[in-house]
Backbone:
C-alpha cells in the first residue's frame, strides 16, 4: 500500500468544474431559505412582542421547536416524514429550502424581537406624540433603527444557514458537499476535494460578511 | 375649594373656554396612586407651569394629556376631543396627539433621520404634505430656533441644546394647538439651558398654550400665567406665580419651595 502525503494541486483544480455545478444549489437553498426565513422571522418576532398572549404563544412555540431541534432532523422529517402525511413526495430542493427557512426563521424571530425591543421607549413616544399612528411609528421610527441594530446578528445567522446547507447532501440535493462526494467516489482525492469545498464555503461566507460590513458602515453614516 | 375657585377665575379672565380639561382623573401604578382625582383646566393661550418633587406625578399628569399614559378613571378633554379611561379613547387619541405637541426631557429625536427629516416626518406622514411643502416648513422652523445651518446633519452631531431646539421645531411643524414640555432642560448641560428657555420664551410671546413641567423656578415665575404645585399625586395649590412663590398657602408648597429656592 502506498501513501501519498503530497497535496495534489492539479487534482484540486481539476475537481473545480464538477464542484461548481453544486454551487447554484448551495446558493439557491441558502438565499431562498434565508429570504423566506427573514419574512417568517419578522412575522413571528413581532408576534412574540404582540399585545395578546394568543398572538405571543404560537410564536413562542414555533421558536422553541425549530430552534431546539437540529436542522438535520428537520430536513429528514420534511423529506422522508412529511410525504407520508401529505401522500406525495417532496422534492429534495424544496425540502432543503423549507428546512433552512423554518430553522433560520426561528433564530431570526429572536433577532427581530431583540432588535425591536432594544429601541428606547422614548422613540415610540416621540412618534406617537407627533400624531403618527402606532403602525406608522413602527414603520418610520422603530423599524429602521431596529433593522440597523440587527445587521450583525442577521449576518451571523446567514453564515450559519449557508453552512447548514452542507447537511442536505444526505437527502441527495446536488449541492457542494454532495458533488464533492460523488467526485471523490470516482477519483479518491478526498484531501483535495474537501479542501476545495471548504474554500468555496469560505468564499461565500466572506462575501456575505464583506457585504454586510459595507451595509453596516453605510448605515452608521447615512 | 380655594383652588377650584382660582382655576375658574383664571380660565374666565383669559376670556375663552378651556382647551384642556381634566376631570376627576385617577391613575394607579400597581399599588401606587400616582394621580388622585385631578381636576385641572387650561385656557387657550395660557401658560401653566407644573412644579413638584420628582415622583410627585407632575410628568405623569402632562403625559396623560396626550394619551402617553393611560388612566383608570375620570376624563380628559383636549380641544373638544375626549380621552377615556383604560385606553378606550379610540380614534380621538390620535386626533388629540395631532393637535398636541410634546418636548421630552431626553429630546427623543430620531437618530436615523437628518435634522430636516426629523421635522418633516409627521407633516408628511400625518398631514400628507409633499416633501417640498414639509421642507419649506422645516427650514422656516429650524431658522426660527437657530439651527438652519445644521439641517442636513444627524441628531448625534448636535449638542444637547441644539437637539432640544430641533425637538421643539419638530413638534411645532404639526402646528399644535397646545404644547407640552416634560422637563425640557433637565438633561442639558447648564450652559445650554438658556438657549432652550429662550426658544420657549419666544413661543410664549406668540401666544401658544403651554403646559410645562420644569425645575427652572426663575423661568416659571417669568412666563407662567399660573403655577400648579403637585405633591403625592394631588394638586396641592395653584395660583399666579407671584402669589404661589411669594405667599404659598399650603405648608407642603412652602416646604418644597424653601428647598428648591434656597440654592
Residues:
Amino acid at each position: 500500500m502506498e501513501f501519498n502525503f503530497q497535496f495534489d494541486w492539479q487534482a484540486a483544480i481539476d475537481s473545480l468544474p464538477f464542484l461548481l455545478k453544486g454551487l447554484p444549489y448551495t446558493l439557491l437553498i441558502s438565499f431562498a431559505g434565508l429570504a423566506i426565513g427573514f419574512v417568517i422571522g419578522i412575522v413571528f418576532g413581532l408576534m412574540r412582542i404582540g399585545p395578546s398572549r394568543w398572538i405571543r404563544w404560537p410564536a413562542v412555540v414555533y421558536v422553541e421547536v425549530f430552534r431546539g431541534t437540529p436542522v438535520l432532523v428537520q430536513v429528514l422529517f420534511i423529506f422522508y416524514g412529511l410525504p407520508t402525511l401529505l401522500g406525495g413526495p417532496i422534492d429534495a430542493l424544496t425540502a432543503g429550502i423549507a428546512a433552512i427557512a423554518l430553522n433560520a426563521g426561528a433564530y431570526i424571530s429572536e433577532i427581530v424581537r431583540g432588535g425591536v425591543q432594544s429601541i428606547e421607549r422614548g422613540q415610540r413616544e416621540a412618534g406617537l406624540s407627533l400624531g403618527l399612528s402606532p403602525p406608522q411609528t413602527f414603520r418610520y421610527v422603530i423599524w429602521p433603527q431596529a433593522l440597523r441594530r440587527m445587521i450583525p446578528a442577521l449576518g451571523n445567522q446567514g453564515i450559519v444557514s449557508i453552512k447548514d446547507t452542507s447537511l442536505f447532501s444526505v437527502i441527495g440535493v446536488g449541492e457542494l458537499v454532495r458533488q464533492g462526494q460523488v467526485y471523490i467516489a470516482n477519483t479518491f482525492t478526498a484531501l483535495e476535494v474537501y479542501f476545495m469545498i471548504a474554500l468555496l464555503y469560505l468564499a461565500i461566507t466572506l462575501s456575505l460578511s464583506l457585504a454586510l460590513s459595507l451595509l453596516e458602515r453605510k448605515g452608521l453614516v447615512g | 375649594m380655594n383652588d377650584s375657585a382660582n382655576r375658574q377665575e383664571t380660565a374666565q379672565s383669559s376670556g375663552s373656554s378651556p382647551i384642556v380639561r381634566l376631570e376627576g382623573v385617577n391613575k394607579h401604578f400597581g399599588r401606587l396612586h400616582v394621580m388622585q382625582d385631578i381636576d385641572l383646566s387650561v385656557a387657550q393661550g395660557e401658560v401653566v407651569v407644573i412644579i413638584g418633587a420628582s415622583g410627585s406625578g407632575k410628568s405623569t399628569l402632562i403625559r396623560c394629556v396626550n394619551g402617553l399614559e393611560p388612566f383608570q378613571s375620570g376624563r380628559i378633554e383636549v380641544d373638544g376631543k375626549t380621552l377615556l379611561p383604560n385606553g378606550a379613547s379610540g380614534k380621538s387619541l390620535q386626533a388629540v396627539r395631532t393637535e398636541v405637541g410634546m418636548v421630552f426631557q431626553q429630546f427623543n429625536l430620531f437618530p436615523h433621520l437628518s435634522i430636516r427629516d426629523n421635522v418633516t416626518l409627521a407633516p408628511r406622514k400625518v398631514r400628507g404634505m409633499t416633501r417640498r411643502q414639509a421642507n419649506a416648513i422645516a427650514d422656516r422652523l429650524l431658522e426660527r430656533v437657530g439651527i438652519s445651518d445644521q439641517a442636513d446633519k444627524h441628531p448625534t452631531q448636535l449638542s444637547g441644546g441644539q437637539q432640544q431646539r430641533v425637538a421643539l421645531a419638530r413638534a411645532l411643524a404639526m402646528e399644535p394647538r397646545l404644547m407640552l414640555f416634560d422637563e425640557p432642560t433637565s438633561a442639558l448641560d447648564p450652559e445650554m439651558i438658556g438657549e432652550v428657555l429662550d426658544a420657549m420664551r419666544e413661543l410664549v410671546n406668540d401666544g401658544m398654550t403651554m403646559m410645562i413641567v420644569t425645575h427652572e423656578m426663575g423661568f416659571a415665575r417669568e412666563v407662567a400665567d399660573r403655577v400648579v404645585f403637585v405633591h403625592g399625586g394631588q394638586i396641592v395649590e395653584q395660583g399666579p406665580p407671584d402669589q404661589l412663590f411669594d405667599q404659598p398657602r399650603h405648608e407642603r408648597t412652602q416646604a418644597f419651595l424653601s428647598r428648591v429656592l434656597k440654592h
Confidence is low (pLDDT under 50) at residues 1-14 of chain B. The first helix of chain B runs from residue 2 to 13. The two ends of chain B are 32 Å apart (CA to CA). The interface with chain A takes residues 66-68, 94, 97-102, 104, 106, 108-112, 121-122, 125-126, 167, 170-171, 174, 180 of chain B (CB under 8 Å).
